[in-house]
Amino acid sequence: MHPDLIERYSAPVPRYTSYPTAPHFHAGITPQTYAHWLSDVADDATISLYLHIPYCDRLCWFCGCHTKHTLRYEPITHYLEALYAEIDWVADKLDGKGLVTAIHLGGGSPTMLTAEDMASLKARLAARFTLAPNAEISIEIDPNDLGEDRFDAMAAFGLTRASVGVQDFDERVQRAINRLQSFEQTRHVIDSVRTRGVHSVNVDVLYGLPYQTLASIAATIAQVLSLAPDRMALFGYAHVPWMKKHQQMIPDAALPDIQARFAQSQLAASLLNAGGLQSIGFDHFARPTDSLALTAAAGRLRRNFQGYTDDRADVLIGLGASAIGQLPQGYVQNITPTGDYQKSVLAGGGATTRGFALSATDRLHGFAIEALLCRFALRRDELAHFGAAGKALFDAACIIAAADPDGMMHADAKCFSVTERGRPFVRAIAAKFDIYLATSTARHSLAV
């Protein structure tokens, strides 16, 4: 791959975990709008719940999440009171409709919750929603938070998939991002959840971190593979110090350049493939028997705010500060500052602060972008139900492919596709179908 091509196709673009992307959400979507959308949910709809716990007992300098550092448990206790109030508010609007088929606890560090609070949270969810007996329950785990009581509490919660953050096992890299975590700690966590019946373990690894090298990436991947994860996410570190001030603790000079980032990503991917994990989209990997790989093989892979997923729920409900929900009508996002979030929901007013109502054009372009990110292809026949607008979009895609001098895209009468050469840059290719990108003032992370 010529360096000029890497530079050109690595220009900052969105990650497209939604379309339109979050910078285009606006304040015209209110709690009243959200209440109306919830009341319109079908009786037999499937629902996925995402609960955001925005607290950590250490602040990792690489983190781009909405979270706060605390060494006291009192703020979490108060936050849970508000979270319960929002659960009640949403459940009242749903009025018994829908079946919850998936629950995801994210953060922050949801494993900061005490065993008692984790049990109380599950009880509140079971009391206010109809939970499927086989619901997929995933929890993001910080290996530094855990004692045996918390492992037991997660098992009692019904944990089926554990997501364990690794980032990198090299100690110099860990010190540079304020994330000291040994291989032995990580192995103990994975062994402990598996002993308690968890059927799937996901591991997150980052490239593009300060002081990372090809040798350190290779060593980390070898250690990760020795843990036999069922899934793995390989994310490029998003250095956005203008948004996340704590990232200013990471020296710019220690970060790899675009060429090095690309080399790191390609090396890691090839090692994971050689280790028995199949590529899923542009940054996930899974064992052939894992449900994510089976879903991708069947052409039913989806993309949402957690990345690639086999979750096919009709409705995604976000609970907690900054959480985002997705309904047939559009997107809703909660208030981000935890204090303001708590005041609003405890006053009975809901937590929605902004969102986006989807138009027919939004649905068409969102479909095209998701198809490219999930399958690297967009077929003419699957656009037929969009009518003339679908035909026009496919014709435009063919023109884009015909004008491509770099061999990144291909089109014929039936299909527009991203070539093997273009797959590492699929975000940049998908961005060609984003009609809002040119009007945005938002700054994004690198596409590689």
Task: Tell me what you see in this structure.
The chain has 448 residues and is α/β, with parallel strands linked by helices. The chain contains 14 helices and 19 strands. The protein has helices spanning 3-9, 31-39, 74-94, 115-128, 148-157, 171-176, 183-195, 214-226, 258-274, 291-297, 338-346, 360-375, 388-402, 426-430, and strands at residues 46-53, 55-56, 68-69, 99-107, 131-141, 161-167, 200-207, 231-236, 278-280, 284-286, 302-304, 307-309, 315-319, 324-327, 330-334, 352-357, 377-379, 409-411, 415-418. The strands form five sheets. The chain has a nine-stranded mixed β-sheet, sandwiched between helices. Strand 9 (278-280) and strand 10 form a beta hairpin. Helix 4 runs parallel beside helix 5 and helix 8 runs parallel beside helix 9. The protein starts with a helix and ends in an 18-residue tail after the last helix. The mean pLDDT is 96.
Provide a compact summary of the structure.
It is built from 14 helices and 19 strands. The strands form five sheets. Strands 9-10-8-7-6-5-4-1-13 form a nine-stranded mixed sheet, sandwiched between helices. Strands 14-15-16 form a three-stranded antiparallel sheet, with helices on one face. Strands 17-19-18 form a three-stranded antiparallel sheet.
What structural class should be given to the helix and strand makeup?
Answer: alpha/beta
Question: Can you count the helices?
Answer: 14
Work out the strand percent. 15-25%
What is the CA-atom radius of gyration, in angstroms?
A: 21 Å
Q: What summary fits the major beta sheet? A: 9 strands, mixed
Label the overall shape.
globular
Low-confidence stretches: none
* CA-CA gap between termini: 13 Å
Averaged pLDDT: 96
Order of strands, main sheet, comes to 9-10-8-7-6-5-4-1-13
Helix amount: 25-40%
Give the total of beta strands. Answer: 19
